[in-house]
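Continuing the batch. This is chain 6 of the set; chains 1 through 5 are on the previous pages. Same settings as before, nothing changed between runs. Recording input and output for traceability.
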Amino acid sequence: MNSFCLKKSPNYSKDGFTIIELIMVVLVVGLLSGALINVIDVGRQRDYASDGVLRQNLSDISGAIETYRVAEGSYPDKGAGQNPRTGSDSGVVNQYLDDWPSGFTYFEDGSDFIIYVESATNAGQYFKYSSDWQAIKECGSTDIGTISGCEAL
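Output for chain 6:
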């Protein structure tokens, strides 16, 4: 009998993974996570979140101005920089509006008003509230300064 033959250890088992299999799994997981990070695009997601904040601020501000009209009988003057908190009746307006965010523009014509702000995700696209509609719409820039104008996007 040949004494140079190797015998298998009695403790040897095929239940584990080889180092090559483990390296392949780590490599595939790394490639998939790298592709997922590129697909998610953090900057774009941040812009979508900013748009959500802009819409919420627009909703809050328009609600405060509508409340002002119900209580005071008219819409506030637009004031300096299209900000009703700086108008002739700013002392009363400030009871309804705590702050006026930058980038928001306000117009009123005595019987109606609009507020609009440019979208963070799409240049030239605006979120606009009109007292005529009582809703927030997404508008292009063509009729943004008119009370009832809003081109469909």
